[in-house]
User: Fold this.
Amino acid sequence: MEPAWLDDLVPRLDPTALPRVLTRTEALRRGHSRNEIEHRLSTGRWRRVLPRTYLTVDTLTWTDRLNAAVGFAGDGSLLSGAAALADLRLRSVARPETVLVLVPRSATARSTGWVRVRRTRRLPAPALLPGPPRAPLSRAVADLALERRHLDDVRALVAQAVRAGLCTVDELTEELREGPRAGSAHLRRALAESRDGAWSAPEARAARLLRAARVPAFEQNARLGLPGGGYLVVDFYWRALRAVLEIDSVEHHLDPADWRATMDRHLLLETLGLSVVHRSPRAVVRQPRRFVRDIEAWLRSRATLLGA
Assistant:
């Protein structure tokens, strides 16, 4: 079964209609003379949106911008970075102001306006997705990660892309290995943390803080079996201490249904004899020392209680 978000990328256009975006080469191929092209531009029937690239309708949409970018860049060009990912429902990726397009080394197109043209010796085959041609999603994620300057932003991007099934940690690791080293430190760390079990940026930061403090060894995203079958996955688990730490965002609990689900989950874990504490991503980021002290004190209390 294909992901639901694929439906959003499928254009619903009349196959007999003139394309909304048309390059000069395509217009000539369709039989429009140079004089006719200039006449349509001068009368406003068409509008130039990039050099030698025209809009044949009144409104330039986001999809039109993407089609215009790859049309302008030429044959074989692929969307990458945020432009390739913005419509795939990743919370950390918004539609960018500039569109990144990958082109072969032999291409003549140059960056202009809101299009960034990047020549690459590693031009991949396009992803098997509807809509404008785009790089494989692992390449798009890696390209965007290399542009981000803050570690937590890269952590969030990697965690969300992997959890959404857009790519795997192994695929991103391959992109890291084959790609440029400049600017890759954050991606390298985020992938190492993902291999250790981090599923989100706050979890990755929390794990790094706890390991640096040398608290007892823990499991990340551990599966806990339930009586009668089934399981729960918890963020951090100290098996010997029967202790669970959950990193819960405030945004998640704004929905009453999510709040009830968290409370039900907490009660179930406590019923199984586990000690469960919750901390917010804000506490991890804004008050790291206090976060570590609180967790250390809680773990010492558990060890004393259990005689561990």
Summary: The chain has a mean pLDDT of 89.
